[in-house]
Prior knowledge:
Structural class: alpha/beta
Shape: globular
Function: Catalyzes the phospholipid dependent N-acylation of the N-terminal cysteine of apolipoprotein, the last step in lipoprotein maturation.
Number of strands: 13
Helix content: 40-55%
Keywords: Acyltransferase, Cell membrane, Membrane, Transferase, Transmembrane, Transmembrane helix
GO molecular function, one term: N-acyltransferase activity
Largest sheet: 7 strands, mixed
Strand content: 15-25%
Protein name: Apolipoprotein N-acyltransferase
Low-confidence stretches: 354-362
Subcellular location: Cell membrane
Number of helices: 16
Order of helices and strands: HHHHHHHHEHHEEHEEEHEEHEHEEEEHH
Amino acid sequence: MNKATATNxxxxxxxxxxxxxxxxxxxxxxxxxxxxxxxxxxxxxFNLLKMAASWRQxxxxxxxxxxGQFTVGISWVHVSIDSFGGLPLAVSLLLMCxxxxxxxxxxxxxxxxxxRLRDTVPPAFNLLLFPSLWLLGEVLRGELLTGFPWLxxxxxxxxxxxxxxxxxxxxxxxGWLVACLAVMVxxxxxxxxxxxxxxxxxxxxxxxYWLNQQEITxxxxxxxxxxxxxxxxxxxxxxxxxxxxxxxxKYQDMSRPYYDHDLLIWPEAAIPAIEIQAxxxxxxxxxxxxxxGSALITGIIDYQPYSQVFFNNLIVLGRRAPELDKSSYIxxxxxxxxxHHLLPIGEFVPFxxxxxxxxxxxxxxxxxxxxxxxxxxxxxxxxxxxASAICYEILFAEQVRQxxxxxTDFILTVSNDAWFGDSIGPHQxxxxxxxxxxxxxxxxxxxxxxxxxxxxxxxxSIMAKAPQFTEAVLTAEVAQYRGQTLFARTGHGPVLALSxxxxxxxxxxxxxxx
Length: 514
């Protein structure tokens, strides 16, 4: 084997190894929750990057890792494309490969930039540099083209001791710590730099132990009786005209025995009718709930004919405050939430005039929504205040954080994960909601059409959940919490500033000593 052939063989072997590490990486997430896998997979990636002979090879290793990571980790996306996209299998697989290839560009970018900066800093500095560069890639992935922060590294630790860091540094900060530990493991396996690894690991371990003993916020003596209704409506039937009334009747019938609860929650777009056309139905429930002393929050689509815009909304029926023994709902009232972070293709279509004629995938029902505000008032229902997030908005930590007020009682997230069938997607979605609860120390009420409907306590633990793919009403008594976490006050600002400073120092050293 000549030198050129050996070099080429080595390059492809490194990329294959990176791809395999990437495919194991999602085992750290729900429903598997093997948190240690994330550290080991990242350590493997860092070892491979150290073997790269050029910046091109380093970028290729990062790309291969990312492609494996997303091919397995977001395989649930293909369930939706294949089941509802109306495309041949070969075309749907091609679209999935293009999506995974796009997302893999961000690990490739982190790998490329690390190679460019690595020779300008001492080995110990990689304990800070590599995590900062990985974080940079994740931040860009979460912002560009509306953002897709799914499988952010920090979410892998909801079942580990590192979860205790969430109220202080958030999901991005935990991801930074995981990458730090991965660098340590990488150097330990090579028996390098042991003199500084031991104290660094000791500091992280001791701080993590201390944080696990802390009670960030305290429950008050108030609690709410909640009932979350999971209708289990098949996605293929949801928007069929002849199924509209059976669906609406089903939700009303399932909820009627729970009208004595403080709050009832229906999922995203639970009512398959335009709000203005469902007034008699809504007013009837509103009046009944007000008489019973309860309130209902439901998802519904609002079409405003004068401006010809659609909104994906949450509205409140029944009592706004317990002392108001009358209904509060009228069409257009301000006690509502309009989804801000819209899902590409599903809720808005970029370049719609070009793409919509090409395939049913680009012309799904309800794919022409307008955005609500980034920060909106909390919903008020029977005296309780709820910060809302519809569907994948719960991924965006900063958006949820900025909608939390000091007197917010609960975080409310509703979804319709029927698009993704019996895949890993709904379980990952629930795991993300657990992170929001822990970061902000507020219980999360999560109502979905077919699961996973759940109530999450302020410490991120699951209090109760309903079985998937069943008609169910999940009830729980949920405590009110008061107090603010450090993350609620500062967000990801400190960890982003630290990472930016570390990258700037490395970039300055490269410019200074090149």
